[in-house]
Amino acid sequence: MNKSITILVNCTDEKGLIYKITRVLYENGLNIVKNKEFVDEDTNRFFMRTEVEGIADAKALLEALTKVLPPNSRIEVVPDRKKKLVILVTKENHCLGDLLMRNHFNEWNAEIKGVISNYALLKDFTERFNLPYHHIAAEGFSREEHEQLLISTINSYAPDYIVLARYMRILTPSFVKQYDGKIINIHHSFLPAFIGAHPYRQAYNRGVKIIGATAHFVNNNLDEGPIICQNVIPVDHSQNAAEMSRAGKGIEKMVLVQALKLVLEDRVMLSGNKTVIF
Question: Known catalytic residue: 223?
Answer without folding.
Answer: yes
